[in-house]
Specification:
Blueprint: H1 26-54, H2 56-75, H3 80-91, H4 102-105, H5 113-119, H6 122-132, H7 137-144, H8 166-181, H9 192-202, H10 209-221
Helix pairs in contact: 1-2, 1-3, 2-3, 2-8, 3-7, 6-7, 7-8, 8-9, 9-10
Length: about 250
């Protein structure tokens, strides 16, 4: 296994791997932890720019997924900082796709078995890239496990239920909804209703049913929750440790 995940069982422990210093261990540990988290955010933002330059479709998709995930996390009780960190992980969740050939990424026909296996490697590729940059494990886990399924039939590991980090469970719902409702070179967008039907059908199999219901609640309660395919411009210059402007809401 690339990275031994921390089993995240409930809201109270969902993000504690990034807050170890708060449970004690001294000021030196706290400072080192803070510096690592800050450096991780800088690395992630540099990768966001790389994704933008390499694949604008993946970049636009990742921005929308980041906003959905951030808002969903806030609704579920995550702090503003925790939700921001999840949004940053969402921005690079498809980083591994930048290492997959365009003729596979943009293929209009069904993928062959070999091509499908290649595509399914992108979470591992992305997690390896982040691990090689010594990025904080929270981001690595979220990227690595965002295609795991509630029933254990996902990839790359086959984790089941609450063994899947909550961050990855949130990200999966946001990712699939946006993928369904967005146009691609190889497919048309589906309606909000059709996308909801797919998510509802997959609740308790592909998706955490609690996350699906929370997502539906936000769609039903806030008319502007659903995003257009182009949401806003990414800042030309990203100052150190500043979050992208489109994450400044909620």
């Amino acid at each position: 296994m690339l990275y031994k995940h921390a089993i995240i069982k409930d809201r109270g422990t969902k993000h504690k791997q990034s807050q170890v210093h708060r449970r004690g261990g001294g000021k030196l540990v706290a400072v080192k932890q803070f510096n690592r988290e800050r450096e991780s955010r800088e690395v992630l933002l540099s990768f966001v720019k790389s994704i933008q330059e390499r694949d604008i479709v993946t970049y636009e998709h990742s921005r929308r997924v980041a906003i959905y995930a951030q808002r969903l996390a806030r609704y579920l009780g995550w702090s503003r900082r925790e939700a921001y960190d999840l949004a940053l992980a969402a921005l690079v969740h498809d980083l591994g796709k930048t290492w997959i050939a365009n003729d596979i990424l943009n293929k209009s026909e069904a993928l062959s078995e070999d091509e499908r296996r290649t595509m399914e490697r992108h979470p591992v590729i992305g997690a390896r890239i982040l691990t090689g940059c010594d990025v904080h494990p929270f981001y690595v886990e979220t990227v690595l496990y965002h295609h795991e399924s509630w029933d254990g039939q996902g990839y790359p590991i086959g984790l089941h239920g609450e063994d899947i980090p909550l961050s990855a469970r949130i990200l999966k719902v946001a990712d699939v909804y946006d993928a369904l409702t967005s146009q691609r070179p190889y497919k048309a967008a589906v309606s909000d209703g059709a996308a909801r039907e797919r998510l509802l059908k997959g609740a308790a199999t592909s998706f955490d049913p609690t996350i699906v219901q929370a997502f539906f609640h936000l769609l039903d309660t806030y008319p502007d929750f659903r995003l257009p395919e182009r949401v806003c411009a990414f800042p030309r210059h990203i100052p150190s440790i500043q979050y992208p402007s489109f994450l400044a809401g909620i």
